Amino acid sequence: xxxxxxxxxxxxxxxxxxxxxxxxxxxxxxxxxxxxxxxxxxxxxxxxxxxxxxxxxxxxxxxxxxxxxxxxxxxxxxxxxxxxxxxxxxxxxxxxxxxxxxxxxxxxxxxxxxxxxxxxxxxxxxxxxxxxxxxxxxxxxxxxxxxxxxxxxxxxxxxxxxxxxxxxxxxxxxxxxxxxxxxxxxxxxxxxxxxxxxxxxxxxxxxxxxxxxxxxxxxxxxxxxxxxxxxxxxxxxxxxxxxxxxxxxxxxxxxxxxxxxxxxxxxxxxxxxxxxxxxxxxxxxxxxxxxxxxxxxxxxxxxxxxxxxxxxxxxxxxxxxxxxxxxxxxxxxxxxxxxxxxxxxxxxxxxxxxxxxxxxxxxxxxxxxxxxxxxxxxxxxxxxxxxxxxxxxxxxxxxxxxxxxxxxxxxxxxxxxxx
Amino acid sequence: xxxxxxxxxxxxxxxxxxxxxxxxxxxxxxxxxxxxxxxxxxxxxxxxxxxxxxxxxxxxxxxxxxxxxxxxxxxxxxxxxxxxxxxxxxxxxxxxxxxxxxxxxxxxxxxxxxxxxxxxxxxxxxxxxxxxxxxxxxxxxxxxxxxxxxxxxxxxxxxxxxxxxxxxxxxxxxxxxxxxxxxxxxxxxxxxxxxxxxxxxxxxxxxxxxxxxxxxxxxxxxxxxxxxxxxxxxxxxxxxxxxxxxxxxxxxxxxxxxxxxxxxxxxxxxxxxxxxxxxx
Lengths: 419, 280
Fold this sequence. Notes:
The complex is a heterodimer of chains A (419) and B (280).
Chain A: E1 4-8, H1 22-35, H2 43-49, H3 53-67, H4 75-82, H5 86-96, H6 104-121, E2 147-152, E3 155-161, H7 164-174, H8 183-198, H9 202-215, H10 220-234, H11 236-244, E4 253-254, H12 259-276, H13 281-293, H14 297-310, H15 314-330, H16 334-347, H17 352-364, H18 368-380, H19 403-411
Antiparallel strand pairs in A: 1-2, 1-4, 2-3
Helix pairs in contact in A: 1-2, 1-5, 1-6, 2-6, 3-5, 3-7, 6-7, 7-9, 8-9, 8-10, 8-19, 9-10, 10-12, 12-13, 13-14, 13-15, 14-15, 15-16, 15-17, 16-17, 17-18
Chain B: H1 2-17, E1 29-36, E2 51-55, E3 58-60, E4 62-67, E5 72-79, H2 87-102, E6 108-114, E7 118-125, H3 130-137, H4 146-157, E8 163-170, H5 181-190, E9 194-200, H6 206-215, E10 220-222, H7 228-240, E11 242-247, E12 256-264, E13 270-272, E14 276-279
Parallel strand pairs in B: 5-6, 5-8, 8-9, 9-10
Antiparallel strand pairs in B: 1-11, 1-13, 2-3, 2-12, 4-11, 6-7, 12-14
Helix pairs in contact in B: 2-3, 2-7, 4-5, 5-6
């Protein structure tokens, strides 16, 4: 995946939508919700993905009204709702009659899945209204819409609108029962949060977790996924990019704190995740690393060693061994570090990172020849045969929690049309 | 098992190709020193008596001064990630050809490239033809493990034979390294390798600036890709006209950080050397 999305701060001029012919469109939407087979690019999905960005903005208050999304503690939604006319309210009431006999909460879940699939499987909505363009002619920047930065390998690649289908999916979840919280909500936020982090859609992920916090603040899966986001935002790949990039004159990337702030945020989330679910070994492992990044080597070492003792998973064991080696080297125990890196190599014999770590440990002990010997096997292996050698290369994006499997589980109850 | 066997075989083959073998470390301290006049022209006629070295404030006796006598051990460590694709890659090849043509037959040259994968494309050798072929074969792609790549380059360059120059080219943004930059800076404090990074304008690579300073090198910033050739040659010329001073530390503790001061008894002379070394 080549997309790295970060959010820009914008000068917002609220857009004033003009709803036209809302009743037929609402009916189309209800039919799509009923007929869509989760995970498929079917006719129902085509109906929805054909809507433009402007259509979606116009429809949003009507759809929120239709599913009865709460306005309490949500001033933006309350403002949108206040603009719905009496005629539109009547159209909403009429449309609801076509929902059929389906349980209303099932209908809301199906609606959330529909917009989820629109975001995941469809093209980004077409933007038909371009009020003004930015200095590079890329996007209108005074429309009040969220704009994401796209980059790769530390280079600015362009701007794109955030996909509004994510907002609509979350609007549908807001309408599900709060007390007790519908379990589908936590499942959705965990699965989609993991997907967004894994596919490097960080700007969307920031909004995603902000909304998750209000609904499922103690779900360990969501806490873990959000912690992974902040761990990545703290890393050099993001911090370096932000340090040198000014996408457009007078604008700045927002949503990302300093590395220190991001490490602290990740740590707090991971602490909470392992407190709620002590069996979450992957969270304890990352907590160890996050603590080490804040120079608390002893504490971090204890955590990764605990994770190592709790898992049989080769990839997690590999990461734990690598990080233990880092801590031991920082603490001046070059021999212990060598043993840890050698353990990592026993799990992934061609791993570049373990060999670099081993060479660093040997070099720190003053053994230059041995350091060269340690590093040569990885340096001299044909690069085209090394793509899968080192799990470190997917540490920030990896599907440790099997994001695809989670998505499949999320969609499973909705793979047929609704009744 | 087949895959592992193949990897080991490749390693063995390349080890043979990397002659001469690496010698072990000696007790003496080596300092690569650039001495220029006020017009930044190298001063070429200095002897041991012209140098004053202080190790943690204690004046040392210079055992040996070499100038232009030892062959060079030039390591190229090039970023070939996605951000280097296109014109920059072409200019990098051209600059490498210009550099190669300026080397002497006894000089060794090696090439390490990196995106997220760090590879030794050409082991150290006095035959320099490998570089251009290797660069032609690589299509820049992927992310940037700058710190990992520099560490590998310095490790390979850590040889007692000759004088070691590492020329690092990158757009300066690390996006994929495993190693922490502090680890490599620590290595720089212990190393005899002199690092000259060449970076693109605006990259602001703090890590490379610090590494150059620690090892007694200098960072170059290029504004246009076509400046690469002249920059590479300038670095090589500057490095060739450096003095290699050797002394055996006396009346100082062995371990810890040793602050170095190098002075030259010539009016107007400017001295550039690493600021210290890690003993022990």
